[in-house]
Amino acid sequence: MKPQRYQLRKDAVAVLERGHPWIFRDQLSSAAQVFPDGQWLRLVDGQNKIVGHGIFEAEGAIAIRVFRTGPEPVDASWIRGRLEVALGKRADLAKRTDGIRLVHGESDGLPAIVVDRFANTLVVASYSAGADAIARYVARTLAAIGNTVPAEPPSAARLVVGPAEHVVLRPARRRRGPALAARILRGAPPDVVRFTEDGMQLAVDLEAGHKTGTYLDLRALRGAIATTKLAGARVLNLFAYTGMLGRAAETAGAAEIIQVDTSERALAFAAAHHVGDPARHRFIIADVFEWLPALDPSETFDLVIVDPPAMTSRMTQVPSVLAAYRRLYRAAERHVRPGGAIVAACCTSRIERDVFKKTVLASLGPRFALQHEEKPEPDHPVGFPQADYLKITWWQSRAD
């Protein structure tokens, strides 16, 4: 699509100068209303100087995703340069796991594009209609790296990308009109693909999993649980999804792991792929917000994991979400044994880190104290404030 000229207001130009990758809708003039969703824009200032290039989004808070600042356009050479930098940052991580986010959107300088590697399979996702073509180019470029006849030894980039035998492209969801089906760009991806993470075997539901298939951003939490002293412990895993955190708890020696989620399919996947000893696991299909308050007070645990899905996409929804968090953690607190712990997670950038921690602490009460927070993984860099979406906190209760 040929870029259209669009003159930014002064406040929007200031956004580019600060290096922020988004221009919000309230920073646009009415002239932007003529652009279709996904339109590429050549951004100019009041003196008609080209200050950047981006993609217009017709709905939502984000109006323009800025790909590149300055007069130079987005071209193949520039994209390859961004990929080279991103892969270089993941070289050490590739020594630990073959489950890696190769591209993390704006934080890697490639807005609206995410690439996850699961062993020999790449899943490439676009989050903006205008970025679909770039996503295809990224997919083919990474596949070429992965399928290059290896040198002796293989290049660092190839070690990060892996063999790339299968490549799936998931186009952006359209706000209007039918959704576009995923495209197979290479190979014949299986419905279930397996990868290894710090020695732990994990599986991904490629056929029906969330987003690219699963949540690689929870790697630090899985590792922390797997290395916690849980021998003989009871663990409650709420919003369990496909049971990766339950698998980590079993690895740590937990004797009983109760996993709760609304999705029958997700829990069936957990039972099939993330259970070593079935006698240690119990799966419950239920709405956590209804099930937990009704749980018998005598049911107590050494570790309670609370990892709810994102519950807000708008700032106006934040107060109701914080109220839901307060109810959730008040209910969870009653089921933690003295000396036990709660993991509290939040996966929305709309709720700031300090606000989340204060909300959890107020809900848990004085017998709990913040033990530590998990840092973002190297393949999920935080390149700007809104990218700090994932908060994972451990809260320890007093032993008395």
What does this 3D model show about the protein?
The chain has 400 residues and is an alpha/beta fold. It folds into 3 domains: 4-69, PUA domain (Archaeosine Trna-guanine Transglycosylase, Chain: A, domain 4, Roll); 76-190, Transcription Regulator spoIIAA, CATH 3.30.750.80; 215-397, Vaccinia Virus protein VP39 (Rossmann fold). The protein contains 10 helices and 19 strands. It has helices at 10-17, 76-89, 132-146, 156-161, 219-226, 244-251, 264-273, 288-294, 318-333, 353-364; strands at residues 4-7, 22-24, 40-44, 50-56, 62-69, 99-104, 113-118, 121-126, 166-170, 183-186, 192-197, 200-205, 234-238, 256-261, 281-285, 301-306, 336-347, 368-373, 390-397. The strands form 4 sheets. It has a 7-stranded mixed β-sheet with strand order 15-14-13-16-17-19-18, sandwiched between helices. Helix 2 crosses helix 3, helix 8 runs parallel beside helix 9 and helix 9 (318-333) runs parallel beside helix 10 (353-364). It is globular, with a radius of gyration of 22 Å.
Using DSSP, what is the number of strands? 19
Judged by helices, strands and strand pairing, the structural class is: alpha/beta
CATH top level assignment of the largest domain: Alpha Beta
Mass-distribution shape: globular
Biggest sheet: strands, sense, closure?
7 strands, mixed
Number of domains: 3
User: CATH homologous superfamily of the largest domain - what is it?
Assistant: Vaccinia Virus protein VP39
How far is it from the N-terminal to the C-terminal residue, by CA?
66 Å
Q: Strand-residue fraction? A: 25-35%
User: What CATH architecture of the largest domain do you see?
Assistant: 3-Layer(aba) Sandwich
Q: List low-confidence stretches.
A: none
**Can you give the helix content as a percent range?**
25-40%
- The averaged pLDDT comes out at 93
